[in-house]
Known about the structure:
The structure is a single chain. It is built from three helices and seven strands. By secondary structure, it is an alpha+beta fold. It has a single domain (6-27, 57-181), classed as Protein Transport Mog1p, Chain A (3-Layer(aba) Sandwich). It has a seven-stranded antiparallel beta sheet. The longest helix has 15 residues, at 164-178.
Amino acid sequence: xxxxxxxxxxxxxxxxxxxxxxxxxxxxxxxxxxxxxxxxxxxxxxxxxxxxxxxxxxxxxxxxxxxxxxxxxxxxxxxxxxxxxxxxxxxxxxxxxxxxxxxxxxxxxxxxxxxxxxxxxxxxxxxxxxxxxxxxxxxxxxxxxxxxxxxxxxxxxxxxxxxxxxxxxxxxxxxxxxxxxxxxx
Length: 185
């Protein structure tokens, strides 16, 4: 199973603290990795039959509960429609442990590409790697990384936590797991 290349990780992750060595820094520009593909998929969201590469994909299938629980205990996943997105959320299990716990969500967006990712209050960073576009948008309540599928569709990986840097690191780790399961347009 292929994982998100290190260059893409370096381009979309922010450092947790200046005292930690080896943590990549955010880059607002595209990757300069000479081995990365420069081809970018520009398929439309709809194939003419009312379907997209994401049609029928269960957002809960993109991540296992054990993957979601690597940052702390979580409840079983809950699938629901939020606006136009088909989502799956793993809420923190607070029955045995108190304190700040991260929540994890996947959102399938068949009508909004990475270029439509809103600034959630702390800027938006964009990068491309191996023909796939990514956008990272931190907020005061967590971090979202969007994985591009077509010009008009994407999968969002969202981590809610009070420590934004930690939330973005966690989201990036989850993107490494989720990305190989996300179809290309």
